[in-house]
Design brief:
With 182 residues, this protein is an alpha+beta fold. The chain has one domain. The strands form two sheets. Strands 6, 7, 8, 9, 10 and 11 form a six-stranded antiparallel beta sheet that branches. The longest helix is centred in the last third of the chain and has 22 residues.
């Protein structure tokens, strides 16, 4: 099984270094993330979902629109939970969804939940449940998942570093970068 993360972002702001230093980057760097499980876009079945079940339009077959830097920071700071058999919960104030990753034996189960509700998107469609739905659409070997997430984040951070070489002098950026390169 393969797992990949793609981070799509338009143009970097000329103020990106300053925004990282001030924390503004958590609000200014918006883009889309796409999870691929065995080469299939996890979000492929997310069009035409009623708003009352999954909220506003931050999710489509193109991916999940999310503040990129905050997503990266939250995942990196929680990624060791996978090895400790604990869940990862990534939520951003600017969108009405949260990414939930729960351990399930040697696997993880990935789902998008309409914030604090009983509605989950699991790659196949919306499910109503108090617990994360488990299916072949959203279950990935834990090591494969973690490697794919780190690889996708590393590729994005390398693009950022290529565009802004002075990021090598920003401790917060280096911390994130080294967590996915070591």
């Amino acid at each position: 099984m393969e797992y990949d993360l793609e981070i799509n972002f338009g143009e970097f702001s000329n103020n990106t270094i300053e925004e990282i230093q001030t924390g503004e980057i958590y609000y200014s760097m918006f883009g889309e993330i796409i999870f691929y499980i065995d080469g299939i876009n996890f979000f492929i079945n997310s069009n035409e979902i009623p708003e009352e079940k999954m909220g506003g339009s931050s999710m489509s077959s193109e991916g999940l629109a999310i503040p990129i830097y905050g997503f990266i920071n939250q995942f990196i700071n929680q990624m060791d939970n996978i090895n400790q058999n604990k869940a990862i919960r990534i939520c951003e104030d600017q969108i009405d969804k949260e990414i939930i990753i729960e351990p399930f034996g040697e696997n993880v189960v990935l789902s998008i939940r309409y914030f604090m509700s009983k509605y989950w998107y699991d790659g196949e469609g919306v499910k109503e449940s108090i617990q994360i739905p488990i299916s072949t659409y959203n279950t990935v070997p834990a090591n494969t998942f973690k490697e794919g997430m780190c690889r996708g984040i590393r590729e994005f951070l390398e693009k950022l570093l290529t565009r802004f070489p002075d990021l090598e002098n920003i401790d917060e950026f280096l911390y994130l970068y080294h967590k996915v390169t070591d």
